[in-house]
Amino acid sequence: MTIVEAAAELRARKVSSVELTRESLRTIHANEHLNAFMTVTEDLALEQARRADEELARGEDRGPLHGIPYALKDVFSTKGIRTTCGSRIFADHIPDHDSAVYEKLTQAGAVLMGKTGLQEFAYGITCNNPHFGAIRNPRDPKRIPGGSSGGSAAAVASGMVFFAMGSDTGGSIRIPAAFCGCAGIKPTTGRVSRYGVMPLDFSLDHMGPLARTAQDTGIVLQAIAGFDSRDDTSSRQPVGDYGTHAPRALKGKRVGVPENFYNERLLPGVASAFQSALRGAESAGARLAPIHVPDPAEINVVSRVILLSEASALMEPYLHRRGDFGADVLALLDQGRLLPATDYVNAQRLRRLFQKDWARLWNEVDCIFTPTAPITAPEIGAVTVDIDGAPEDVRLASTRYVRAINVLGLPAISVPLPSEGMPVGLQVIGKPFAEAEIIGFGAAAISPQKD
Amino acid sequence: MTDWTALIKARGLDIPDEAAANLTAALTGLERDFRPLPARLPFTIEPAITVSEGAVTSE
Q: Of A107, A150, A255, B3, which has the most beta carbons under 10 Å away?
């Protein structure tokens, strides 16, 4: 069931929020082997659900999320509720304030089921957390869910919740959405407040929802988007109409299909699923436009310099506690301590250059389609994946198609494609603040409406 | 190319020898890929770092 369907049933009194919440709790407990949740807020959830039922019965309707069970990645501060960031260092951290996203979702009447697991400090994509255990992919528990918002993706894909919040610094919403078979959107820089979220990287972090459908991510985005004076990067751009179903969104639109980079070194199953999506877009009335994109490989290098530098600067006060970090994260933090300041400054200057280069693309196309990742979910513990007969580091392969978009600050959504075997994602990239468009394009590409 | 092990020692960072050895390949690869890129930067390009109005105007 989607948010749209659940919201309709709540208003038709076919189901209550308490019933949805009890079913959510049952599913969470039945799937504990997935290790999706860090903390389950059972009592709070039932209290919020009872309140939602009472308010809806009185005709006090807070909108489509009223009474809907959801989860927050365990980097979103929740006053009085443990917020670990997946780390031993913050294992017992109880925030004294709420994140802006949690404030808005509470105002929208959504029901918090708990906090989902993640890669330590959201720094990586396997979700093989050394302190809290590996999170598992609902489609095949021997495989990773992707990350770092892996618990959120696993919770959505297994039906524990209708949606879950994630954070995305270099693909951490879109990768797990693609690997687990759900939708996930990384909005434009400044669209959703970062206030009250434990940062990994000051200039690359973005907050966004994962849900079962593109339209559901739009409904959540509608509730959490908007200016927040507590976040220095927050934008005053008007909030769009993100939740309306637009089945013919692609008709007459120019879909950019890169002829470089995004068609290189990908698994055959990913390539065939992507080609099917292109045919679906064409049948929905889109015009496919071959394009050459300014080199994402170089932007990925810039991304690594920025991320290594900023994350290490952030964690510097804790680095004397080496034993409290996992080996993977500690290795990245050590790398960041060694990069010269000139590299960081020049990486931020190159970022400006790449942003200008990519801005020219929007004269040619309305959006860009790519696969979300060149691979499907690897097995837990795998260090490399084999692509075209050559091994590639799991982290670099998983992030190869997505991390440049954080440097550019553009919105991008991953929607699940029909595929044989493990899930494959379609990434739809849009111009700044075109979230409504890319949500519509993504939905229309996988469910094309013919005239 | 940078001698990362020597740099660790020169800066007095508390990174054990075994961990330092594991960093070298990653950093050398990153250095190889990154260092040529700034050569294309005109002097007029400034860093893409946001400065908020409030931070500038408030005491």
A: A150
State the distance between the two ends of chain B, measured CA to CA, in whole angstroms.
Answer: 44
pLDDT given at position B55: 54
Return the amino acid letter for A304: R
- Scored b (16 or more CB within 10 A) or e, A356-382 reads eebeebbeebbbbbbbbbbbbbbebee
Q: Is B21 part of the contact surface with chain A (CB cutoff 8 Å)?
A: no
> Smallest Cα–Cα separation from A139: which of A124, A159, A119?
A159
| Buried residues in A45-72 as b, exposed as e (16+ CB within 10 A) | bbebbbbbbebbeeeeebebbbbbbbbb
Half-sphere exposure of A83 (CA within 13 A, CB side): 23
CA distance A112 to A405: 30
The full DSSP string for A136-199 is: -BTTBTTB---SSSHHHHHHHHTTS-SEEEEEESSSTTHHHHHHHT-EEEEPPTTSB--TTB--
Task: List CB contacts of A120: < 8 A, sequence separation 6 or more.
Answer: A85, A86, A87, A129, A130, A131, A325, A326, A328, A329
Classify residue A185 as exposed, middle or buried by CB count within 10 Å of its CB (0-12, 13-18, 19+). Answer: buried
CA–CA distance, A115 with A102 (Å, rounded to integer)? 11
ipTM for the assembly: 0.91
- Which CA distances in Å does B9 have to A91, A312, A432, B13, B14? 32, 18, 45, 6, 9
Cβ distance of B37 and A346 shorter than 8 Å = yes
C-alpha A274/C-alpha A3 separation (Å) is: 26
Instruction: State phi, psi for A184 to the nearest 5 degrees.
Output: -155, 135
- Ranges in chain A, pLDDT < 50: 451
pLDDT digits (tens, 9 = 90+) for A225-255: 999 999 999 999 999 999 988 878 999 999 9
pLDDT tens column, B2-45: 999 999 999 898 898 888 988 999 999 999 999 999 999 999 99
Beta strands A367-371; A254-258: pairing state: parallel
| In contact, A201 and A306? CB cutoff 8 Å | yes
Q: Is A38 left (phi over 0), alpha (psi -120 to 50) or beta?
A: alpha
Check CB contact under 8 Å for B23 and A302. Answer: no
Assess whether the previous peptide bond of A148 is cis (omega < 30° from 0): yes
Contact status, residue A415 vs residue A217, Cβ threshold 8 Å: no
**What is the rounded distance in angstroms from the CA atom of residue A305 to the CA atom of residue B30?**
8
Nearest chain A residue (CA) to B49: A348
> Helix, strand, coil proportions of chain B in percent (round to 5)?
60, 0, 40
Mutate to test the interface with A, among B22, B27, B37 (most CBs of A within 10 A): B37
Q: What is the pTM of this model?
A: 0.96
